[in-house]
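Quick one, tokens below. Sequence please?
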């Protein structure tokens, strides 16, 4: 991982997150215990402060959509998948296959899965909402399956049923 100018570690109910940014865009959100050595200057910038506030609101059940400006660095295909993933509504789930079909690539579920797995902005781009089509599994998650399960249950508990 490249050196980011600004970074901060924040605590959440499911572990410590590392936030990395430049002056204007958030570049990375990931769980500390899943990362190799990362170097950054422990200094705040507007994207870091916004991310900390919005993630805090998310965990408190007060935020369903993130508004932080993001640096989505990846292949054009990965960025397309991440944009579609950002549109998956809070408290819902979508299958890799359905997301591929929505993107116009009905046989592209594996490619979608690879793009989702390479998401550098966990939680903010809600890849935890993308799951396998069948079975009881929630699928993989860069932050760990236990966290994906927690996030899905957290969101479900906040969705009001009519």
């Amino acid at each position: 991982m490249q050196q980011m100018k600004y970074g901060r570690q924040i605590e959440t109910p499911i572990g410590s997150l590392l936030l990395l940014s430049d002056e204007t865009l958030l570049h990375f959100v990931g769980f500390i215990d899943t990362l190799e050595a990362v170097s950054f200057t422990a200094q705040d910038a507007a994207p870091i402060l916004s991310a900390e506030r919005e993630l805090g609101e998310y965990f408190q059940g007060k935020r369903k959509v993130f508004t932080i400006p993001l640096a989505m660095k990846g292949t054009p295909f990965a960025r397309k998948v991440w944009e579609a993933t950002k549109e998956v509504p809070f408290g819902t789930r979508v299958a890799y296959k359905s997301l591929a079909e929505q993107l116009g690539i009905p046989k592209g579920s594996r490619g979608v899965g690879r793009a989702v797995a390479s998401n550098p902005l966990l939680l903010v781009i809600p890849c935890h909402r993308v799951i396998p089509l069948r079975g009881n599994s929630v699928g993989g998650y860069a932050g760990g399956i236990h966290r994906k399960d927690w996030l899905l249950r957290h969101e479900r508990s906040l969705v009001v049923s009519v």
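The longest helix spans residues 46-59. The chain has a mean pLDDT of 90.
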